[in-house]
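Need a sequence for this fold. Nothing fancy.
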C-alpha cells in the first residue's frame, strides 16, 4: 500500500509523462459531488420549499374563498352557541388537515416511485433504495461516549413535516380570523 502523501506526488509524476495518466478515484468522486451533486441537491431543496409555499398560498386562497360561501354556516354555529375561538380553531384545523393530507399523499407518491425505480437504480448505480429509504439529513448532535463517537441526524423529510404544519397554521390564520370576526346578525339576515 502506498502512503497518501506519496500517492499525490506519484500521481503528479505519472501525469507529467506522455505515456500514462493517473487518477485518484476518491478525489474525482469528491469533485463530482462538489461540482454536480451538491448544487443539484440544493436546487431540489429550494424547489421543494417553493412548492410548499405555493401550496400554502393555494390553501390560503381556497379556505378564504370558501369562507364567503360558509359565512351563513358559521353564523348558525355561532348562534347555536359556538364560541369565536371554536370557529377559529375549526378553520385552523381544516388548514392543517389539508396540508397534512397533501404532505402524506406527496410522501407516499415519492416513496412509491422510489420503490418502482429501485431495481433500475440498483442495476445502474449499485445503490439499493426502497419504499422506506429516507433522504439523509443534517447532523443535529455529535458527541462521544466511552470513546465511541455518536452522531444524531434526522432526515430532511422528517424536518419538512413540522415546517408544513407551521406553514398551514400561518396560512390558516387569515381565514380563521375572518371567521372569528363574522357578524352573526348580518350573516343570518343575508
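Here you go.
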Amino acid at each position: 500500500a502506498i502512503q497518501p502523501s506519496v500517492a499525490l506526488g506519484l500521481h503528479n509524476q505519472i501525469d507529467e509523462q506522455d505515456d500514462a495518466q493517473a487518477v485518484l478515484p476518491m478525489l474525482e468522486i469528491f469533485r463530482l459531488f462538489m461540482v454536480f451533486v451538491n448544487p443539484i441537491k440544493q436546487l431540489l431543496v429550494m424547489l421543494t420549499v417553493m412548492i410548499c409555499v405555493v401550496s400554502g398560498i393555494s390553501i390560503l386562497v381556497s379556505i378564504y374563498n370558501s369562507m364567503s360561501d360558509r359565512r351563513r354556516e358559521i353564523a348558525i354555529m355561532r348562534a347555536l352557541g359556538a364560541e369565536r375561538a371554536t370557529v377559529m380553531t375549526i378553520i385552523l384545523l381544516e388548514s392543517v388537515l389539508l396540508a397534512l393530507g397533501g404532505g402524506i399523499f406527496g410522501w407516499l407518491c415519492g416513496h412509491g416511485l422510489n420503490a418502482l425505480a429501485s431495481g433500475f437504480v440498483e442495476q445502474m448505480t449499485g445503490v439499493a433504495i426502497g419504499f422506506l429509504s429516507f433522504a439523509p439529513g443534517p447532523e443535529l448532535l455529535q458527541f462521544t461516549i466511552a470513546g465511541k463517537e455518536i452522531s444524531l441526524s434526522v432526515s430532511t423529510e422528517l424536518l419538512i413535516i413540522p415546517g408544513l404544519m407551521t406553514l398551514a397554521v400561518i396560512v390558516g390564520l387569515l381565514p380563521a380570523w375572518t371567521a372569528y370576526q363574522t357578524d352573526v346578525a348580518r350573516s343570518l339576515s343575508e
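For context: The longest strand covers residues 139-145.
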